[in-house]
């Protein structure tokens, strides 16, 4: 699967993650030439130092993980610290609870506030949608909302809710997203053939939480 390395982001976000496990993922990113490393906010500063300023891989972190239902002000503070610590890709989890309530209008306001903060520091803004909780209409609406408010990437899942990989659903996510917006797919459980099809369909990033078998 060497030809896929430049599309793969290694994520190390599970609650029991150890420092050694994160160093192993960092070594994979460096040695295999992967696209990026995603760590929790607590570890951003350390891995920015390890990567240095010129490392070609993107250092990403998550905001509002895993359910997105923190107050916007809390997310803003998390983002400010993450940017200060050196993250260059900020993955913000959609507040699904707000979507399912009359407060859904607040989502557009929240995205507008957060994208301004992130883009002011020339970092990428990724919106994470927990696709398994949304029907097709809700998914399409939220994809459009995130794209219209300036998202650089859309991601189809947090990876925190167990779900079997579905190539059809992943390809549908790519079709629903505008071509102007990058797409990240959580690819745990996907075969090499599946990942090839995703890349051929225009998926820019494949997020894997397990070690790569080169």
TrEMBL record:
<dbReference type="InterPro" id="IPR002915">
    <property type="entry name" value="DeoC/FbaB/LacD_aldolase"/>
</dbReference>
<keyword id="KW-0963">Cytoplasm</keyword>
<protein>
    <submittedName>
        <fullName>Deoxyribose-phosphate aldolase</fullName>
    </submittedName>
</protein>
<dbReference type="InterPro" id="IPR011343">
    <property type="entry name" value="DeoC"/>
</dbReference>
<keyword id="KW-0704">Schiff base</keyword>
<dbReference type="InterPro" id="IPR013785">
    <property type="entry name" value="Aldolase_TIM"/>
</dbReference>
């Amino acid at each position: 699967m060497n030809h896929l390395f430049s599309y793969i982001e290694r994520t190390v976000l599970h609650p029991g993650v150890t420092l050694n496990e994160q160093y192993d993922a960092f070594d994979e990113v460096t040695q295999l030439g992967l696209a990026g490393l995603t760590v929790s906010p607590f570890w951003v500063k350390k891995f920015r130092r390890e990567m240095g300023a010129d490392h070609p891989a993107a250092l990403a972190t998550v905001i509002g993980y895993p359910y997105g239902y923190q107050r916007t002000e809390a997310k803003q503070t998390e983002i400010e610290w993450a940017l200060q610590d050196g993250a260059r890709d900020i993955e913000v989890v959609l507040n699904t609870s707000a979507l399912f309530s009359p407060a859904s209008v607040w989502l557009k306001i929240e995205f507008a506030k957060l994208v301004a903060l992130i883009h002011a520091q020339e970092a990428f803004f990724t919106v994470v949608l927990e696709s398994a909780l949304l029907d097709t209409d809700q998914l399409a609406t939220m994809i459009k909302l995130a794209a219209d408010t300036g998202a650089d990437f859309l991601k189809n899942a947090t990876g925190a809710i167990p779900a079997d990989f579905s190539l059809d659903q992943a390809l549908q996510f790519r079709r629903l997203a505008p071509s102007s917006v990058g797409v990240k797919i959580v690819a745990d459980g996907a075969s090499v053939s599946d990942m090839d099809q995703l890349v051929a369909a225009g998926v820019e990033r494949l997020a894997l939480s397990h070690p790569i078998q080169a």
